[in-house]
Amino acid sequence: MRVMRPELRLVHDSAPQAPEAPPSLASPWWKDLLSILALGASLALVVGWLGSERRAVLSLEPDERALVFQESWDGFQRLCSAPSQSGLIPRCREQARFLLLFPECQGACQEQARLHGRALR
Q1: Among 62, 87, 88, 99, fewest CB within 10 Å belongs to which?
Q2: Residue 111 falls inside a structural domain
C-alpha cells in the first residue's frame, strides 16, 4: 500500500504588499551610525568653541580683562541703549553675549545684556 501525501500549494495573499527596496537603495545601518556620530561631533565642537571663548576671557590678566570689559560695556551702551536701527540688532546681540562672558558683568550689565539677548531674537 502506498501512502499518498497531500500536495502543498502556495496560496497567494490577496492583500497588496509594498515592494521591498533593492539592496542598493536601502540605507545600511553603518550610514545611520556615521550620521549620528557626525552630529555628535559637531555638537561637541560648538560646545567646545563656546567654552573656549569664556576661557580666553578668563585667561586675561585681571587689569587687562577689566579694561576690555569697560571698553566693551561703554560701546554696548552707546550702540544698543537707544532705540536702534534694525541693522544694529545682530551686533547688539553679539555684544550682549560677549559681555556675559566677563565676571565683571554684574547688575545693570547682566540685566541689559540679557534683555538685549532675549528681546532682539
Answers
A1: 87
A2: yes
Q: Which grid coordinates belong to 52?
A: 573656549
Domain encompassing residue 115: 62-121
Residues 115/105, Cβ–Cβ less than 8 Å: no
State yes or no: pLDDT of 11 exceeds 70.
Answer: no
pLDDT higher at 36 or 82: 36
Q: Is 53 part of a structural domain of the chain?
A: no
Tally of domains within the chain: 1
Kindly state whether residue 85 falls inside one of the protein's structural domains: yes
Intra-chain end-to-end CA distance of the chain, in Å: 91
Each residue of 51-103: pLDDT tens digit? 678 888 888 899 999 999 999 999 999 888 776 666 778 888 889 999 999 99
The verdict on residue 32 lying in a domain is no
